[in-house]
Design brief:
Blueprint: H1 2-19, H2 29-45, H3 50-62, H4 74-88, H5 93-104, H6 115-124, H7 133-148, H8 154-168, H9 174-179, H10 181-243, H11 253-274, H12 285-323
Helix pairs in contact: 1-3, 2-3, 2-6, 3-5, 3-6, 4-5, 8-10, 10-11, 10-12, 11-12
Length: 324
Amino acid sequence: MKKFLLNTESYVLNLLTEKLNKDYLFHNVSKTQQVVNSIKELIEGEKISEVDANILLFAAWFHNIGFVNRKENYLEASVNFAITFLEEYNIDDAIIEDVVRLIRVTETKASAKDVLEKIMKDAVSFYYAENSFIDKNELLKQEVKLLYNTNSSELEWVQKNINILVKEHRFYTNYAQENWQNGKDKNLAKLVKTEKKLLNEKTTENNFESSFQTHNTLTVKATIILAVNGLILFVSLVGYYIMNTTTKNQEVLIPILIFLLFNVISAVLALVVALPLKVKQELNQDVLSQKINSKSRILKYTYIVFLAGIIVSVILFIIKAINA
């Protein structure tokens, strides 16, 4: 049987090396070898008999080979490879059936019913406990992107994996629970830390975006005030020039000058608001908020001065009209 296992190893490795799509950055030769090594560790840890150990090793070697043919329903393709190969060597039907069910139990939602299935489930998810988990998980992300043309954000991917580790995955065997669970917990902690960092960055990014939108709104309002002030200044000067042709209309000079003074002050304030922000590379959200709040206050003063100029000028016109 040992020689036959060596033939199986050679067959699978050659097939994966020569036929597997290079876009399989995660589900490749290295992953298959890692599962086989995990099986060997669990066989010893759970003290499995030689017969059952051989069945587990056959299943481990064949469980991912279906990716050579297709990415959808690859497990059934793996089953077909295993059956064809094992039948050629006249392996007992009972052993083939066990190999088949162990391959199928590696499906994510499949439940483990006996110790061999528990070992198989634990072996394929051993990488959750590895020190290299973060790096391998990034390879899986890139593989999914290449094969399925999807591009999850870093935050989405991290949150998806946190959900898997917390809600969907568990180690079944006593050996894995005692020896691998701690590694899994450490990797989960790394993911949670990364999630917190990404959420903070997202919040900061949203705050910056909101702040700049507010600034754009202030700029638009200030620009409108500048345009109105410019129009008023032009009309006032033309009006005064026309009225200046009679001595009687000299009396409106003071109200017009006062109105123009307020007009100029409000224009200057509006110009300050309309000026672009000097955004430095190290500008943080607090500094940006302070700058925008300052411009918002200036814009309020602009409205006050503008309206005050109108009110004062109207009052002076009324007084002049009564005295006349």
